[in-house]
C-alpha cells in the first residue's frame, strides 16, 4: 500500500509537491566491470500544467485593465491622440473579455479533473485536446521524465517533455508567430520609448515638485515683505533645493527622445489621415497644434528641450543672485521694502519657465504612454496575434518553471549550484524534433518566439508562509513575470544570503531543432531548411555567450565544459543530430534544464529521451556496450505495470500511447501485439 507518491514524500519532500500521477519502472543492467546498475524510470504529471496558465491569464487581464485606466487618466486630448486612446481601449477590452472567459473555463476544467491538487490523479492536456480553444494556454502532454541511477549512490537525471509550444487552435494556415509578427509588427527600436516605469516616475515627480516650487515662490515673496533676513534665507534655500530637484528630473533623456519622436511623426503624418476605431478621421499630427503652434519644421532642434530646463535653473540662479546683491547693499539688518519689487518679476519668470517645462514634459510623456500602449497592443497586429503569442508563451512558461523547480530542489545542498544561480542564472535548453515541412514549420515559428519570450522571466526564492502544499507551489507576479518559489523556513534559512535577500535569478533560454522524421527527409531534399539553420546558429551563439559568462564569473565551474565549446558551430548536413547531443551535454555540464519536444511529445520525444538515458548510463555509469542495445530495447518495449488496478503487463511504447491520448484501459490494436500472455 506504500505508493510511489508516499515514497517520494520520504525521499524528496519538495519534489513530491509538484508531481502527480507518477508511474515507475525499475531495471537492472550490468556494467563493464560486471557490477549491477539499479535504474528507476519515473514519469509524472504536474499541477503546474494548469496552475501557471491560470495565473498568467489573471496577470494579463489585470495588465490590460490597468492600461485602460492609465490612458483614460490622461484627460482631454487632441483628436488624433483621443483616437489612439480609443483604439487602445477597444483592443484591451476585447483581450480582457477573451481572457476572463478562458480563465473561467479553466477554473471549471481543473475543478472537474482535480478538486484537490495534492490528490490529483490526472493533470495534463492530452494531444487529442491540443486544438481545444479553452485549453489554448495549457501545454500539451507536459510530463517530467526522471531516471534515478543507484551505483551505489543515487543520481537523478531529469528531462521535461511536452508538445512544442504552439497555438494549434488558431492553426498554421498563415504560418507561425515569427512570420505573423514579421508581417504585422512595426515596433520602435528606441529603448528610450520603452521604459514605462521611467514615464510614470517622471510624471509623478513633476506632479509633486511643481506645486512645491510654486508654493515656496509665493512664500518667498511673502517673506520679502516681512523684512526678515534669516527667514528669507531659509525659504530661499528650500526653493533652491526643490527647483534643483525639478531640473534634475527634467534632464531625463526619455523626454528629449519623445519630443524628437513627436516631431518625426508630425513630419510623417503632415499629409496623411487615419480612421480610428471610434470612427474619427484625423489628418493632423500626434502633437496637433498644442506644443508648437502648428509649425512642422523639417529639422528638429536637439537643444530645444535642453534650453527649457536650463531656463528653469537660470531663473532660480537669478533669484539667488538678486537676494545676495540686495542684502550686500544693506548695511543694517533691517531690509528695504524695495526687495519685493526686485524679486516679483524674477519669481514670475521662474513660474513661467516651470510651466513651460511641465507642459512640454507632459506632452512628451502623454505621447510615451499612448505610444507604448499602441506598440504593445494595436501595433502588434490583430488581437488574435497577441493572444497567440500569450498562449505560446504560457505553454513554454509552464514547462520551464517545472524544470527550474526540479533543478532547484535537486541542488539545494549544492553550494556551487546555488552560487551559479545568483551569479549567472540558469540555462534552459529546449530540444525540438519538429520538421521544417507543412504545419510543423508554423509550430517551429511559434516555438521560436515563445522560447525567446522566456528571457523576460526571472525567479526569486521566498520563505513559505506554511508548509501546506498550496503554499509551496510557485506563484507568478508582475508584468515582468517574476516566478516566486516558496521554500519551507528551515530550508530557506540554509540558502546563501543573496538568494534570501530576494536576488532575481535570470533564465537564459536556447532552442535547438533537428527534424528527424520522414517529412524532414522530404524538406531537406525538396524544401527549405533555412528556418532550422538560423535557429540553431543563433542558439549556438547564445549558448556560447552563457558559457563564457559562467567561465568568467565562476572559473572553477567553467573548466568542466571548455572542451565542448569547440564543437558548438553547426555543421550543415542532413539530420545533424550531433547538434542536439552536444547541446544536451553542455546543458548538463552547466547544471541547465533539459526540455524535449516534438509535435505532441509522444513518439519522437519518447525515442529521444530513452536514447539519451541509455547514453548517460553508458557514459557516466559504465553501462556495458554489449548491453546498451538491450537496455534501450527494454526501456522502449519492456513490460510496465499499469498505474490503476490492472495487473496486466503492457509494452511500454503502447503504454505511452495510451497515457498521452487519455485512452485507459487500453485495447490491443489490430495487427500488432497478437501474442500477449493474457486475455483482455
TrEMBL record:
GO cellular component, one term: cytoplasm
Domain of life: Eukaryota
PANTHER family (UniProt xref): AGAP000124-PA, INOSITOL POLYPHOSPHATE 4-PHOSPHATASE TYPE II
Record keywords, A-Z: Hydrolase, Lipid metabolism
Identification of the protein by name: Type II inositol 3,4-bisphosphate 4-phosphatase-like
GO molecular function: phosphatidylinositol-3,4-bisphosphate 4-phosphatase activity
Taxonomic source organism: Pundamilia nyererei
